[in-house]
Please model this.
Amino acid sequence: MKSLLTAVLLIFSACFNEIGAHPFYFAFAEVEFNELNNSLETSIIASAHDLESLLKEKNIISKTLDNAKQNETEYHAINEFLNQHFSVYALDSLTFSAYDSKLPPQSEFVLEGFEVLLDGNVQFYLSTVVQKPVHELFVTFDLLMDRYSDQQNKLSFRYRGRKFTYNFLNATKSQFIKLDV
Model:
């Protein structure tokens, strides 16, 4: 009887591990140019569990994402981490030599807030001021790609009533984007 119970527990455990793992990895960003205050307003959605695990591993947070909201040091470290993995350059502000350099983005995004959602995702709200309307961009969106080789990120850019959508994969972590308006 004991060996039967052990066998059932092992099978249940194997099934539970398979169910708990997810075979896909996605993050979504939506960026909108706000012409009233010359800013890019951004939201990024990713798996809270995956991102929280990575942030703990990198010693960016010590407990949970929810706890990091109350910890100013961790909150700012999350902001820095997001800027490392999501950046937008206005092309007219860069020279071609800057594309290959490790310079920080022209304007870093400011983390305005975030919430852990009931569906298991986390949504970050960021913004940055830009000097003028943007028409050509160089965007990097490689959030979680270092950890998950199958990570796929999707960016939707809203500009003057139109929506442009771009996919980012491990092979295409950065893209030139021309907004045809």
Remarks:
- Helices lie at 2-20, 48-57, 65-68, 72-85, 96-99.
- The mean pLDDT is 82.
- The chain has one domain: 25-178.
